């Protein structure tokens, strides 16, 4: 019987205390071996090249070369799966986290803000689980990919559009939103799986790359065209029968839930709803996208070649929620084509909600 090779991890943190704690928590998982530690960005780049770890846990507020700079260097010299472990309490750290995602990091996890040993161990198990999942993701170096002509949308022109994403999602969202015009005639709702504490930072970061106003939705507000809405930390965002935004605490599973959001769009807007599932692990969004398709709406999923992780888009294809994967570069045009000449009205003709 063959013995499974351990997952080799490089821990990067300028605090020896935090590095010791991360090492201890990670090595409680039998599948993980910590093969090196670095206390600054330059050393992290050097060890990544020398050790070729399977996964790197990366702090961001580092002396010398900061986290995003180190990640950019690692991804150009010796690409690796990088999991950011950052302090949520520090706004600079949160903002740097999204720069790190742009540079090639796969996921963001907040550092533990607990002293209770049991809670700390629980956090450590979640971290180790994330590392094990990351180890299964193909290592990719980021190369620009030529856009191909997208297929024309099928279904009715839409009055509202939902986007679901997970691992690799923030850079994908930035790419899509940066190419949509301020005149987008529908509201855009986003369900991006994210650790609690990072949503506001993501909203700030995306606001810098898109002409569209980006905000956290308020419960009961009327959704406006040309605006991008995220749920509150730890909540799902959905739309009620009147077309108003609703927030509900997450009930477990991926948070926020893409299935909950897209299913609500299908129920409220029928054939005037649209949705897309982007890169991510798992199956979230597939059932919601299928609900939109069954209602006669417009559905897409990202193709394998442009996805960091093809799990969620594949699940959408497997359940026949959409016909084919399309390149990320084609998404802005597809979204715009889907809603052009169909301004958000709030009435219920052809499946829209009543006021």
Keywords:
355 residues; single chain; Rossmann fold; alpha/beta; 5-stranded parallel β-sheet; 2 domains
Question: Brief description of this entry?
Answer:
This protein is 34% helix and 19% strand. With 355 residues, the protein is of the alpha/beta class.
Structural description of this entry:
- With 355 residues, this protein is of the alpha/beta class.
- It has 2 domains: 7-134, 3-Layer(aba) Sandwich (Rossmann fold), CATH 3.40.50; 160-351, Methylesterase CheB, C-terminal domain (Rossmann fold), CATH 3.40.50.180.
- The chain contains 11 helices and 14 strands.
- It has helices at residues 16-26, 41-51, 67-77, 91-103, 117-134, 169-178, 199-207, 258-269, 286-294, 311-318, 331-339, and strands at residues 7-12, 32-38, 55-58, 81-86, 107-110, 160-165, 188-192, 214-216, 228-230, 235-239, 245-249, 273-277, 298-302, 325-326.
- Helix 3 packs parallel to helix 4 (91-103).
- The radius of gyration is 21 Å and the shape is elongated.
- The protein starts with 6 loop residues before the first strand and ends in a 16-residue tail after the last helix.
């Amino acid at each position: 019987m063959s013995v499974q090779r351990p997952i080799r991890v490089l821990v990067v943190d300028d605090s020896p205390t935090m590095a010791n704690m991360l090492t201890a928590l990670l090595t409680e998982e039998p599948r993980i071996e910590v093969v090196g530690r670095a206390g600054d960005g330059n050393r992290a780049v050097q060890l990544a090249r020398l050790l070729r770890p399977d996964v790197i846990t990366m702090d961001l507020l580092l002396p010398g070369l900061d986290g995003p700079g180190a990640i950019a260097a690692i991804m150009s010299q010796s690409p690796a799966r990088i999991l950011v472990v950052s302090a949520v309490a520090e706004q600079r750290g949160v903002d740097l986290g999204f720069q790190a995602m742009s540079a090639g990091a796969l996921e963001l996890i907040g550092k533990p803000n607990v002293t209770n040993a049991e809670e700390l161990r629980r956090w450590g198990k979640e971290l180790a689980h994330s590392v094990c999942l990351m180890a299964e993701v193909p290592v990719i170096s980021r190369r620009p990919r030529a856009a191909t002509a997208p297929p024309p949308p099928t279904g009715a022109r839409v009055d509202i559009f939902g986007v679901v994403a997970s691992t690799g999602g923030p850079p994908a969202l930035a790419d899509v939103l940066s190419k949509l015009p301020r005149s987008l005639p529908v509201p855009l709702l986003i369900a991006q799986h994210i650790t609690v504490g990072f949503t506001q930072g993501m909203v700030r970061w995306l606001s810098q790359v898109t002409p569209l106003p980006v905000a956290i939705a308020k419960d009961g507000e009327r959704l406006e065209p040309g605006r991008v809405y995220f749920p509150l930390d730890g909540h799902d965002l959905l739309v009620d029968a009147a077309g108003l935004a609703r927030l509900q605490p997450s009930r477990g599973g991926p948070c926020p839930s893409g299935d909950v959001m897209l299913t609500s769009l299908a129920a409220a807007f029928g054939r005037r709803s649209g949705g897309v599932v982007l890169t991510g692990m798992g199956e979230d969004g597939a059932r919601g996208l299928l609900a939109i398709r069954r209602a006669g709406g417009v559905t897409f999923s990202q193709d394998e070649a442009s996805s960091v992780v093809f799990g969620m888009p594949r699940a959408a294809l497997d359940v026949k929620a959409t016909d084919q994967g399309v390149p990320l570069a084609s998404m802005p045009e597809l979204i715009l084509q889907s809603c052009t000449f169909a301004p958000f009205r709030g009435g219920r003709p052809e499946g829209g909600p009543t006021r």
